[in-house]
Design a protein that fits this description.
With about 290 residues, this protein is mainly α. It has helices at about 1-20, 25-50, 55-70, 75-95, 95-105, 115-120, 120-135, 145-190, 200-255, 260-265, 275-285.
C-alpha cells in the first residue's frame, strides 16, 4: 500500500514541480514512449540474459511483495512458536513414535490443523517437519548440534532464494542510469544526423535525447532502488519465522523449560513484532 502511495507522490511531485517551474510536459510525453521502450526493453533483456526462468518467477513474486508487504503476520509468528512447541512437547512426553504421524503427514495432523495458515505454507511445514523427521527416524538419538546444523543449512538456503529478487532489482537500479545514457547517446546521434535542421527542430531533438538520461536516473533512484530496499525489509521480517522455529526446536532438545524455550524464540523477533512472553504462555495454556 505504501509503495503505491509512494509512486503516486513521486510522480506528482517530480512532474508537478517541473510544471510549476514553467516546464512543458509536451516534449517529455512525446519522447517518453520510445525512450521507455529503449530503457525498459534493455532492462528486460538484461534480466533475461542474467537469470533463469526460476529466478525470473522469483523476481515477479518479489515485486509483488513490495506492494503486498510481509507474508507472515504477527499472529503467524506466534502460531509458529506455538505449533513447534506443541510438536516438541509430543516428542518429549510421548516419544518419537507419537510424533511420527504429525511430521510425516502434516496435512492430516491434528496439531497442524490448529494453524491452517502455516499448514498451507510448504516452506514453513518443511522447516518444521524435516528436522523433526530426522529425530523420528533416529528415535530421538541424534545430537542436538547436528540437528541445529541441518536447520541452519535449510534456513541459509531459503534466505538465499528469498534474497535473489532484491539483488536483481538492485542490479537494475545500478544499471538504469547507464541505460538512460545509452538512450540519450542514441538521441544525440539522431540529432547530429539532422544538424542541418533549424534550431527549433534541433532543440526538440536534443530535449528528447535528454529525456533518456532523466528517465534512467528517475527509474534507478525513484523506483528500482527503493523497491530493492523495501523488498529486503520484507524479507527480513518474514525470515524471522524460520529462526523462531529453530530456537524452539534447539532449545527444547537441550531440555530447557518451556518458558525459556518460548523466550528464546520470542526474543529473536524484531521489537515491533515481538509478542509478550505472557501472551505466548497464555497461548500455550490454551487461553
Amino acid at each position: 500500500m505504501f509503495a503505491a502511495i509512494g509512486i503516486i507522490v513521486l510522480i506528482v511531485m517530480v512532474f508537478g514541480g517541473f510544471t510549476l517551474a514553467g516546464g512543458a510536459l509536451g516534449p517529455i510525453l512525446a519522447a517518453l514512449p520510445l525512450e521507455m521502450m529503449m530503457i525498459g526493453g534493455a532492462a528486460i533483456g538484461a534480466v533475461l540474459i542474467g537469470n533463469s526462468m526460476h529466478e525470473i518467477k522469483l523476481l515477479g513474486k518479489g515485486v509483488a511483495k513490495v506492494f503486498k508487504g510481509p507474508k507472515f503476520t504477527n499472529e503467524d509468528h506466534i502460531d509458529a512458536i506455538a505449533l513447534t512447541s506443541k510438536l516438541m512437547k509430543v516428542l518429549r512426553s510421548d516419544g518419537a513414535v507419537a510424533l511420527e504421524s504429525h511430521v510425516t503427514d502434516p496435512a492430516n495432523s491434528a496439531i497442524f490443523s490448529e494453524y491452517p495458515r502455516l499448514q498451507s505454507d510448504p516452506v514453513v511445514v518443511d522447516m518444521i517437519c524435516d528436522p523433526l523427521t530426522l529425530m523420528v527416524v533416529s528415535s530421538g538419538s541424534l545430537d542436538t548440534h547436528a540437528i541445529e546444523d541441518v536447520i541452519d543449512n535449510a534456513i541459509k538456503t531459503q534466505l538465499h532464494e528469498m534474497e535473489e529478487p532484491a539483488h536483481t532489482i538492485q542490479s537494475l537500479a545500478d544499471a538504469f542510469p547507464a541505460l538512460g545514457i545509452v538512450a540519450a547517446v542514441l538521441g544525440v546521434i539522431k540529432t547530429m544526423g539532422a544538424i542541418d535542421q533549424p534550431p527549433e527542430i534541433l532543440g526538440k531533438m536534443i530535449g528528447a535525447a535528454l529525456v533518456g538520461t532523466f528517465l534512467g536516473v528517475l527509474l534507478a533512484y525513484g523506483f528500482a532502488g527503493p523497491m530493492a530496499s523495501r523488498l529486503k525489509q520484507v524479507n527480513t521480517h518474514d525470515q524471522q519465522i524460520f529462526h523462531s522455529i529453530k530456537q524452539v526446536i534447539v532449545s527444547s532438545l537441550h531440555g530447557y523449560p518451556q518458558p525459556l524455550v518460548l523466550e528464546a524464540a520470542r526474543s529473536g523477533l524484531p521489537p515491533a513484532h515481538r509478542p509478550k512472553l505472557t501472551d505466548l504462555l497464555d497461548t500455550m495454556r490454551g487461553r
